[in-house]
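Quick question: what would this complex look like in 3D?
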Amino acid sequence: MAKQSLRGKVAIVGAADTEVGVVSDLGATQLCVDAARRVLDDAGIKKEQIDGLITCNSMAEPYMYHAETIAEYMQIFPQYCMAIGAGGSSTFSVMHHAASAILTGVCDTVLISMADSLRSGLSREQAMLVQASTGHAQFESPYGPTVPAYYALIAQAHMHKYGTTAEQYAAIAVACRKHAALHPAAQKKDPITVEDVLESRMIADPLHLLDCSLVSDGGSAIIMTSAERAADFPHQPLYLLGVGEGHSHEYVSQARNLTTSAALESGKRAYTMAGLGPADMDFAQLYDCFTPTVLIELEDLGFCEKGEAGAFVESGAIELGNSLPVNTHGGLLSHCHPGNPGSMYHLTEAVFQLRHQAGERQVKDAEVALVHGQGGIMSSHTTLIIGRERD
Amino acid sequence: MTDHSGKIFPRPSPETAVYWDACREHKLMIQQCHSCNHFQFYPRIMCTQCMSSEVNWVQASGKAEVLSFTIVRHPVSKAYAEETPYVVALIQLSEGPTLMSNVIECDLETVAIGMPVEVVFENWSEEISIPKFKPAE
């Protein structure tokens, strides 16, 4: 059988976020359902029209079978139902699984809803336990690494190899905060400077507090269907033009390369499917658990040469109004970071931008965007390219 | 003597028992493939280079260098508070494989990428000794 490309075959017809930040009146399960309710409203459909459901598990309220639990809670009866566990954050890698299910007739309309309440739903001890369970149980965790420490190992290696500076990492946090200030729901909006980042307390050298993402509550959801059916929905459909994954390791001590990630492969795969390149992207939504994550993604996704992302971000290129706006909602660094669902906000923001609904932070005439998620410690990568035009 | 109770203790499995038994005797063991001579860490039932199942344990020289490092200023749990700040590093053994460890017995600010180090063992209990690294003499 000939290989069939997913390009232009499915579309996003609904997108919605819950309230984010500190949401103490809703638990993780309720946030997941709230996101689902909101996205059904956005897409103008009833829950009976959903025949595929994808969720991710929650740390605050974990279930043995998460998607099935949410389906039961909402009293929906899908014919395609799964919970994704893609490490921290490549949760939206499920988009191409959903796309494949739609194209092969397994289901027609897929709801992807993800939420967690890391801020209000976990005690400090529980949060520490989650952190301690990130590394290899025998060969990493005994040495006392923290999550920032894992990324600091990568940041330090990039500085050593390419001369990247702490000021350059800080410029990423500054850009994200500027964008968050324009987002009505963002958790952190007070402007910060490079000096503020460098003067914030050191967590794990070279990462300061403001190089690290937030800890938040929140949920986010999208609805996908075939390109043909997409025309029946109220909003401009956004077509999936390219998708690619790349996986290089699970534990950072086994990384085949500290400074070049498998975003190189996921990006190439997505660009090839889309028939587009980095220069075609009007903006990019890049996973930003820590500032160096963004810097390495900019290089590996081809927005600048290897080793030159430091100068690129320092020039202001990633700020709204300049050549490649990045994380126009403020990202995990300033909008919110509820754990596993974190990368979903990069995706819903791309939807709002491409529908031209982003208000003050609108990227003018945005047509095509790249969205990138990453899980583990620069381990698992998914790149999506979505756009307004199907062909 | 430092109290290590409350720290994250490794729990040896059948696959890793040889490694932790050797650590107790202050020997660092890695695997070498009988077919292609490839060295690897952590222990596995297969050679990651040629898929041979004939992987043998050999004692590593203990000579290594710092591949990357960070100084952890906020410990992962209370049990690590006493030794905070501490260096978490990726260590490349002279045989090739990379592992995570702490660099100890030196001024933390002198740790650098490329720094030559050598293995030293820290006794956590009767059963468990942990390989760490100090600047090479």
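Answer marked as accepted. The beta strands of chain B are 29-33, 39-40, 55-59, 63-72, 86-93, 98-103, 116-123, 129-135.
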